[in-house]
Amino acid sequence: MRIDNPLITVITVSYNSVSVIEDTIESVLKQTYPRIEYIIIDGGSRDGTVDIIRQYEKSISFWISEKDSGVYHAMNKGIDRATGEWLIFMNSGDRFYSETILSQVFEHEYKSDIIYGAVELDYGFTKIIKRPYPLECLPLHMCFSHQSCFVRTDLMKKTKFDTNYSIVADYAFFLEQYKKGNLFHQLPFTISTYDNVNGISSAPNIKVLIRHLNELQRIEVFHGSIHFEILKFLVKRMIRCVCPKFILKIYYRKVND
């Protein structure tokens, strides 16, 4: 049991997110945990996102709205501003799983560099809890959700996200830490709800899929056929279009078991 309450930095990155930003902000501000530094980095939204942020600015430690070079550039700007002991990204559209989750996590003291838990995947028509894969799978694929992961802030400041990637920079970061021997610890909690409808790496777009696979090849993780992966993607997309929702619910539960 930990006696003190470490300062936790929560960073939200947003861009033209007027329909989802408020849910994210509310999920942070409603946390029962007493010491939160909340930072919002907006990429120059023009759809009303900034108006919503302004409504909450008295409760936000720092926010800015300006053009950036992509999501990881924006996340790095948030890291630069962070002063907490631990850091977590809760980007626009994503939410903490419960109002008490930060209090649950930081009742305890950790010697690890990175701590992570389960994620609730929100597909729009159903929600499914996805637990982390064994850490030994990390050299093969991302085995936990970034939105359900806390990293020591000093570690993130030393090794920020590689902005040469547009989709997999978070995975590249965690893979590098794993190879360096930094300590990971799995938590017995569901930390966040991930917006699997609007998330970048889950977007139903062939161009995004190809870019994702190409980036995985660059970090020497994906060695398969891009054409085969595109075919799989098209089949899954067709299934989503023609199947009733109750069948899709069964499908996604099996996929995420």
Automatic annotation (TrEMBL):
Gene3D superfamilies, per the entry: Spore Coat Polysaccharide Biosynthesis Protein SpsA, Chain A
Record's keyword annotation contains RNA-binding: no
GO molecular function list: hexosyltransferase activity
Keywords of this entry: Transferase
Domain Glycosyltransferase 2-like: residue ranges: 9-134
Protein name stated in the entry: Glycosyltransferase
